[in-house]
């Protein structure tokens, strides 16, 4: 595990990991369906898009999260723990 639930952000809990935790039930519940269909469900993609996971390294000035590599990998790790194919 590359993180400790706090992303080196002055000891504060990461809002990015909190977003991943909020999607845990959805992502976990769609794993078998995603495998059977050979792609992520539209519902999972929409939830991840809304959470900002497809723009983690995009600058804030362009509407992204402007996350550093450790933050990005921590989010990917959290999602992979829920469903490897989704992460």
From TrEMBL:
Residues 30-86 form the Acyl-CoA dehydrogenase/oxidase N-terminal domain. GO terms for molecular function: flavin adenine dinucleotide binding; oxidoreductase activity, acting on the CH-CH group of donors. InterPro entries: AcylCoA_DH/ox_N, AcylCoA_DH/ox_N_sf, AcylCoA_DH/oxidase_NM_dom_sf. This is Acyl-CoA dehydrogenase, N-terminal domain.
């Amino acid at each position: 595990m590359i993180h400790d639930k706090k992303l080196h952000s002055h000891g504060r809990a990461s809002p990015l990991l909190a977003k991943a935790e909020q999607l845990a039930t959805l992502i976990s519940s769609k794993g078998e369906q995603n495998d059977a269909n050979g792609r992520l469900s539209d519902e999972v993609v929409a939830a991840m898009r809304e959470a900002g996971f497809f723009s983690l390294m995009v600058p804030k000035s362009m509407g992204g999260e402007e996350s550093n590599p450790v933050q990005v990998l921590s989010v990917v790790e959290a999602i992979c723990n829920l469903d490897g194919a989704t992460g």
